[in-house]
Amino acid sequence: MNVQVVDYLAADAPQKFVESLHKTGFGVLINHPIKQSLVESIYKNWLAFFNSQEKEHYAFDPEKQDGFFSTEISETAKGHSQKDIKEYFHIYPWGRIPPSLKEEILHYYELTSSLAEELLDWVEKHSPIDVATRYSEPLSNMIKNTPNTLLRVLHYPPFEGKEEVGAIRAAAHEDINLLTILPAANEPGLQVQGTDDKWVNVPSDFGHLIINIGDMLQEASGGYFPSTSHRVINPTGNSKSKSRVSLPLFLHPRSEVVLSEKHTQASYLLERLKELGVK
Ligand SMILES: O=C(O)CCC(=O)C(=O)O
Ligand SMILES: [Fe+2]
User: Fold this and answer.
1) Which residues crowd ion ligand 2, with CB under 5 Å?
2) 174: CA distance to ligand 2 center in Å?
3) Nearest-atom index, ligand 1, CA of 231
4) What pTM was computed for the model?
5) Domain 5-276 is in which class?
6) What is the per-residue pLDDT across 127-147, written as a single tens digit (0 to 9) for each?
7) ipTM value of the model?
8) For the chain, which terminal residue's Cβ has fewer other Cβ atoms within 10 angstroms, N or C?
9) Where are the domains of the chain?
10) Which ligand is nearest to the CA of 213?
């Protein structure tokens, strides 16, 4: 398993990046257009929010799925019995967002969503012809004007010694969506599982932009792009006393977009949520 670190500005970037996605389900970009100062500011401002009581005013809406999800109701990965050790806030442009954080986070949402359109064009252009003919419409089109793309601000709290034995920050899982864009977190821990089942660290230097395939692109590409398992392991040493903040953008097609002969975005999502027992 060798996740490539690709220079976004290099002439052969699209080809190298898409090859890494095909082989590992992950690709990492440097020299990309998302400013590190913006990411750092978001981490700082949202850490202050998570450390305040204000979050309690935004308890998540079970129907709409926007708002704050506490550690008590945090998700349990498929096939696992313990909750992940994390809390998070789900941002949709149409959803509830704390007013003082709104402008910055929506700016980030727009920037990364438009970068995603370019990256989906790269994926399409470098898909083998028999794979590309499966796409019901251009991949970048699938996310145009979508209300379904979700930005999750994640806070993994410092360890207090009271954590349940066996629980981890984020248990092994695959993402359900088309593509995920994730700036490197402020602390390490992200790992991906290779075809030999071994876990390897994803290159996550501060400033790296990590992109991974979700189940919907695996479905749409007939398995050519694998939705690989990943996880966030627990901190050791000094890192135990530190919060970890991360910011995955889960790109979702519009609900009516056809992914495969079997599924639209909506039917696929419903099937997966039923499996997870949340619908
Ligand atoms: O926190 C991270 O680095 C990854 C989070 C993740 O994989 C997820 O929320 O799906
Ligand atoms: Fe994930």
Assistant:
1) 175
2) 6
3) 7
4) 0.96
5) mainly beta
6) 999 999 999 999 999 999 999
7) 0.99
8) C
9) 5-276
10) 2
